Amino acid sequence: MKLSSVRDQSFGTRFEIVAFVGDEILRERLHEMGLRQGLVLEYRGSAPLGGPMIFHYKSVSIALRTTEASCLEVKPISV
User: Is the dihedral of CA 35, 62, 56, 68 positive or negative?
Assistant: First the structure.
């Protein structure tokens, strides 16, 4: 199983959250937003000039700063 960072994903990629790494405060914030291990996200794009990354899960779209997104360790899901 190859794990990667969310920041390495391309537009439209679906992936599963495998682990949370990094700063405890950022990991807690992600949990409060409803992100959990096993959740499937779809990368929808990012704002220009290094702005937030946009993800979609269930019926929710969420924008994460790159520092927050780097706390997610994921594995791609093949369609």
Answer: negative
| DSSP letter for each residue of 12-58 | T-EEEEEEE-S-HHHHHHHHHTT--TT-EEEEEEE-TTT--EEEEET
pTM listed for this prediction: 0.80
Residues 6 or more apart in contact with residue 72 via CB below 8 angstroms: 5, 6, 17, 20, 21, 30, 35
Residues 6-46: pLDDT tens digits? 666 677 889 899 999 988 998 899 999 899 999 999 989 88
User: To the nearest 10°, the Cα dihedral for 55, 58, 61, 63?
Assistant: -40
